[in-house]
């Protein structure tokens, strides 16, 4: 029996190494990306609902972007606070701001996808660049960096949306590491030619891509997924690329309690259930292999069965994964979270189990 467990453990380690070297290595060892300004017309789209403090602070940063031809489409999604009033002030202050006012619709009440659809239709530029109301660019060259990755064939650009650092917060390290690992995954699969998701905090695409798949119509009833479900549907090897220069990054405010973070992750996991079959399979296989990599060696070491072999396999897997994550973190300027990698990985594995069990018995509450 123990010999079979050992063989299975060897298989699991092989699966993990295949993921890290064969897939994630595509991004980890990718060449340094260059920014070649394209100066194509861009509509920056921000959809906000009751975000008065964030939009007051962050929209001016968008207006200060160093780019020759762009507009900012501000969508007020039936806010009950002062968001609309602040947007109206920006519309008067900046000539390139376009305001879209969304009223509650009984059929699409509180649905961000409905509000975004109105904003996309109102956008005057051919290329669209999305970010969230609680996000801001790390550079005045953000639009330049993201738009520079567009080509005649590449009409969807996946960017990186990182989270602010909070000193002396282990939760913050968990959130930032999990965000880093997610980015490594969707960047790598995109480089392989199988893009499966993107994040609305930093995502760009040509307007025709939206209409080619009839917008969000196929998943309009799902409150979340205006970003990842759209990319899962529209992105292909030929039309998708990634942006990971330091100037192409956006920053967001992270959750500050474990409860809020778990609620957020429950929504993300629930949305992933609507991905294409292969994407669900490869994500599921990766997370299952992570869990089994934790469980199987405990059993083998408890019986001291081939413990030298087991320890060597553990060391090999951690060496490979640490190198891949380290190189990737270097590209995305997230090196500080890598030092906590083994501990954070354990936390994320148990969090994933908790989320899976919880979502099995109750649906997560969406923010809209």
UniProtKB/TrEMBL annotation:
Keywords, in A-Z order: Glycosyltransferase, Membrane, Transferase, Transmembrane, Transmembrane helix
Name of protein: Glycosyltransferase
Domain Glycosyltransferase 2-like: start-end pairs: 43-175
Keyword Transmembrane helix belongs to the record: yes
GO MF term set: glycosyltransferase activity
One Pfam family cited in the UniProt record for this chain: Glycos_transf_2
Keyword presence, Transit peptide: no
Signal peptide: none
Parts of the chain that traverse the membrane: 6-29, 283-301, 307-325, 337-357
Family label: Belongs to the glycosyltransferase 2 family.
């Amino acid at each position: 029996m123990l010999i079979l467990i050992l063989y299975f453990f060897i298989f699991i380690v092989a699966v993990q190494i295949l993921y890290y070297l064969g897939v994630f290595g595509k991004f980890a060892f990718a060449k340094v990306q260059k920014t070649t300004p394209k100066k194509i017309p861009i509509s920056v789209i921000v959809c906000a609902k009751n975000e008065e403090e964030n939009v007051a602070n962050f929209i001016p940063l968008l207006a200060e972007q160093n780019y020759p031809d762009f507009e900012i489409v501000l969508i007020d999604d039936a806010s009950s606070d002062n968001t609309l009033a602040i947007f109206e002030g920006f519309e008067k202050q900046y000539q390139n701001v376009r305001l879209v006012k969304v009223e509650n619709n009984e059929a699409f009440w509180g649905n961000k996808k409905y509000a975004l659809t109105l904003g996309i239709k109102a956008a005057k530029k051919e290329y669209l660049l999305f970010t969230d109301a609680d996000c801001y660019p790390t550079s005045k060259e953000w639009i330049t960096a993201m738009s520079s990755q567009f080509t005649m064939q590449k009409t969807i650009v996946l960017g990186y949306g990182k989270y602010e650092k909070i000193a002396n917060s282990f939760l913050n390290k968990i959130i930032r590491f999990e965000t880093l690992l997610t980015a490594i995954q969707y960047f790598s699969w995109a480089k392989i030619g199988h893009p499966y998701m993107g994040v609305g905090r930093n995502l760009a695409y040509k307007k025709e891509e939206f209409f080619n798949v009839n917008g969000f119509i196929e998943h309009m009833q799902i409150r979340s997924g205006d970003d990842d479900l759209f990319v899962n549907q529209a992105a292909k090897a030929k039309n998708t690329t990634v942006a990971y220069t330091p100037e192409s990054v956006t920053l967001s405010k992270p959750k500050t309690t474990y409860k809020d973070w778990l609620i957020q992750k429950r929504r993300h996991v629930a949305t992933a259930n609507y991905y294409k079959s292969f994407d669900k399979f490869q994500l599921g296989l990766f997370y299952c292999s992570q869990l089994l990599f934790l469980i199987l060696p405990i059993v083998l070491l408890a019986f001291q069965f081939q413990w030298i072999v087991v320890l060597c396999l553990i060391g090999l897997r951690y060496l490979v994964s640490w190198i891949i994550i380290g190189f990737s973190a270097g590209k995305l300027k997230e090196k500080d979270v890598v030092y906590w990698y083994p501990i954070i990985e354990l936390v994320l594995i148990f969090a994933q189990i908790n989320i899976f069990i919880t979502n099995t018995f109750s649906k997560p509450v969406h923010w809209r």
